[in-house]
Specification:
Strand content: 15-25%
Strand order of the largest sheet: 3-4-5-6
CATH class: Alpha Beta
Organism: Coccomyxa subellipsoidea
Oligomer: single chain
Number of strands: 6
Helix content: 25-40%
Number of domains: 1
Distance between the termini: 49 Å
CATH topology: Adenoviral Proteinase, Chain
Number of helices: 5
Protein name: Cysteine proteinase
Largest sheet: 4 strands, mixed
Keywords: Hydrolase, Protease, Thiol protease
Structural class: alpha+beta
């Protein structure tokens, strides 16, 4: 079976035609579209705003399911403790063995000046557990 051709290779994100086609209708966004948007925000739209950090779905997922000791090493170059606002892509996939699982994306933000997490969710109640778990882990890492 022939592999679908690449549509866009953008920094750490690879999009195929089927990913981009999701934007042409009333479809759910997939992991790759969310990853692209966060990458775009970080490296282009807000590149000069060093106080902001956009933590995409893969990194947020790694925070939720990865080893705490390894996370500190992974996050160190990102200088998260110096950021004023961190925006996390939050997914409700509870199974680390299924990389593209889950059924809903939401946003979790951390504001440094008042040490506050806020959860923005278009489907009330969904992702609540994942967002709370992510906030708890991020709070430990951020101090």
């Amino acid at each position: 079976m022939a592999r679908e051709p690449k549509y866009l290779d953008y920094h750490d994100v690879l999009l195929y035609r089927s990913d981009v086609d999701l934007l042409k209708g009333k479809y759910w966004l997939n992991d790759q579209i969310v990853a692209f948007f966060f990458e775009y925000l970080q490296v282009e739209k807000y590149a000069s705003h060093k106080e902001l950090f956009f933590c995409g779905g893969a990194l947020s997922y790694l925070l939720l399911h990865g080893d705490a000791m390894e996370m500190e090493a992974v996050l160190a170059p990102m200088k998260l403790k110096e950021r004023e606002l961190i925006v996390f892509a939050c997914n409700d996939n509870p199974d680390p063995s299924v990389s593209s699982g889950g059924s809903h994306w939401s946003l979790l933000t951390f504001t440094k000046h008042n040490s506050t997490f806020r959860h923005y969710n278009s489907a009330a109640g969904m992702n609540e557990e994942a967002a709370r778990a992510l906030a708890k882990i991020a709070q430990k890492l951020l101090g």
